[in-house]
Amino acid sequence: GLDTFALALASEVNALHRTGYGLGGSTGLDFFDANTTGAADIALSQEVAEDEGKIAASADGSTGNGEIALAIFNLQNELAMEEGTTTLGGYYATLAADVGALKQGAENELMESELALQQLESWQTSVEGVSLDEEMANLVRYQQAYTAVAKFLSAIDEMLQVLIAVA
After folding, report:
1. Domain limits at 165?
2. CA 73, CA 17: separation in Å to the nearest integer?
């Protein structure tokens, strides 16, 4: 996986870098920290991190010679992975595609889980139905409204009885 790629990359780059020369004539230095154990701890070597002039880009130490830098760039096409059957670039591309597929799969599972949760919440609401306390409160309100209307109609009936008796 990613650790295998990081170790192979560090090893291949360091092997080339040690053969080159930096700006001050420095040579034999690793580009990546030699204690790299995987992707989580890959880092520049202390020498390169402290002085970028120690990046060994030249094959012969002359100014403007970038043969080592070009060779490091071309490592992407070297069969350095899976026992010499896959290039670093191909391995990285496959690794990136795998990570992308895993990410897409995780996003799909998340969406499916959210949809299932919504369906379960909807089902729960439909099963729970109506609150009995709420229905009882509504019945009391309707009874009070009915009583008020009945009293109003009774008062109107009495007024009509009085009017008929007077007329």
Report:
1. 131-167
2. 12
**146, two tokens:** 């009915």
Handedness of CA 66, 67, 72, 78 (dihedral sign): positive
In a domain, 118, yes or no: no
Separation CA 113–CA 21 (nearest Å): 56
Name 86's bridge partners.
81
* Number of domains, the chain: 2
- For residue 30, give the nearest of 68, 74, 66 by alpha carbon: 68
Asked if residue 164 is part of any domain, the answer here is: yes
- Please report where in the chains the tokens 């060994």 appear, as a residue: 56
Separation CA 72–CA 40 (nearest Å): 22
Q: What is the pLDDT of residues 94-140, one digit of tens each?
A: 889 999 999 999 999 999 999 999 999 888 777 766 677 888 998 99
**SS3 category, 32:** strand
pTM of the model: 0.59
